[in-house]
Amino acid sequence: MYINHLYNLITTQYCYAASSISSQFSVSEWETQDDLYDTLNLVQDIMLGVAGGLAVLAIIYAAFQYATSGGDETKIATAKKTITFTIIGVVMIIVFYLILSFIIKRGTGIGT
Where do the structural domains in the chain lie, given as residue ranges? Predict the structure, then answer.
């Protein structure tokens, strides 16, 4: 029940934020393509920073699990899986970052 309330809160806030942002801005209101490009790059960089920070925290957590496992094979396996999946996630983040960079450059016409 708590998760359902949390989900409703997040989706409601997200939809409200998205509708208020879309009502305040439109592509035609951008002064130049440089403004749009800079804004998209800023959003992309913030998202990359958050994802990278979460990846670092996941690695630290997995290292703590590994260090405190006390030789328990299940805890060691869990820590290794966490590290493996975090590394896979970081690789996916890098790939998505490159794809987004390409799309932003092509979409704004800058850097082509």
Answer: 1-27, 31-108
